[in-house]
Amino acid sequence: MPSGRVFVIIPAAGHSRRMGQPKLLLPIGQQTVIERLLNALDSSRVTERLVVMRKDDVYLADAVRAANATVIQPDHAPPDMRSSVEVALTEIACRFSPNTNDAWMLTPADYPLISRDTVESLLATWMSSNAKILIPTHEGRRGHPVIFRWTLADHVAAIPADQGLNTLVREFASEVEEVAVNDPAIRLDMDTPTDYERLRQLAFKDPA
Question: Domain 6-202 adopts which CATH fold?
Answer without folding.
Answer: Spore Coat Polysaccharide Biosynthesis Protein SpsA; Chain A (3.90.550)
